[in-house]
Amino acid sequence: MQDTDPATPRSQAERLAAWVRLEQTPGVGAVTAQRLLARFSTPQSIFSASHLALREIVSDSVARAVCEPMPDACAAYLDTVFDWLADPDHHLLTLDDPAFPPLLRELAMPPLLLYACGRVALLSAPAVAIVGSRNATGQGAANARAFASALSTAGLTIVSGLALGIDAAAHEGGLRGPGSTVAVTGTGADRIYPSRNEALARRIAQEGCVVSEYPLGSGPTPGNFPRRNRLISGMCCAVLVVEAAANSGSLITARLALDQGREVFAIPGSIHAPLAKGCHILIREGATLVDCVDDILIPLRVAPLATLARQPDSSASLHAAQRALLDALGYDPVGADALGALVGCDPAVLAGRLLALELAGHLERLPGGLFQRVKR
């Protein structure tokens, strides 16, 4: 391991090195690490223990791995970690660090380490997770953005997973308020995935916080994402599901939240919308139905805003024919033929009006030739 930065006290560097080494030791997973820490209190004490004392807690092979000198690969990784920590906005929080998120400590198997970029104080702030589909509709993204903005304005930090769709919209909304946002990634904190969210991730690292339990350099392995979901729900007092298919990973996050004793909220949708099915499932299972931000703030004992329900009607500036078309469209997906029959409009004229409304952001075009109104 290279010499540490002079600004980093050697005792602190040695403490961090022991935590990293513990996580990197072959055979030491979350369960084994918890058993060792319960017995020896700190990683430094674990590596100072005798083989005989270790053998009382773990298998012979693990005890030998702990007693062996630090492997070259681990020493090289520690150099990488300390190089990364040279940036003052980069942080490595250990399970015994006062800045470690207190709600995460309550998990059955909390992470040993959290790599964070940005404002680590947000990791301990009151927070709400907002999750949902990667293939979000325009209305779903607008809902996520609006709810996140209102909750952040109320002082709550918005936590999500930096995915496309609902996650990205939630982060954007969170950045609009003082609560800001935290992105929990399924890669190392030095990697950005997906690449399309690179600009957003860099902004979050400056104004909010990007956090990961995975070692630096870790790529987007599929198994990482379900595992990181427990952190998204675990560091929050509640989870809001905005849009989700019946088999969505967002339902995993919601059910993890229930297991962790967190509140779960869901926004209902059309009975014809595939991305409403998951929310309807959660509501049937006991999640609280939400149609305005106060439905979340009041149960969480945060001062109500009543902002979403009082937004002005954005269609007021439309001419009569366009307003009539929006009224006929309602909020369920409708095909052009059915719309034409409702308003008695020539197909060519209807197509022009639909395009104008789409370009103005009042409706979106869905697969299968369907259109859906967007409440802005």
From TrEMBL:
Pfam families assigned to the protein according to its UniProt record, in alphabetical order: DNA_processg_A, WHD_DprA
The chain positions of domain DprA winged helix read 311-369
Gene3D superfamilies cross-referenced by the UniProt entry? 3.40.50.450, Winged helix-like DNA-binding domain superfamily/Winged helix DNA-binding domain
- Name all Smf/DprA SLOG domain ranges: 92-298
What family does this belong to?
A: Belongs to the DprA/Smf family.
Q: What is this protein called?
A: DNA-protecting protein DprA
Species name for this entry?
Massilia rubra
The gene name on file is dprA
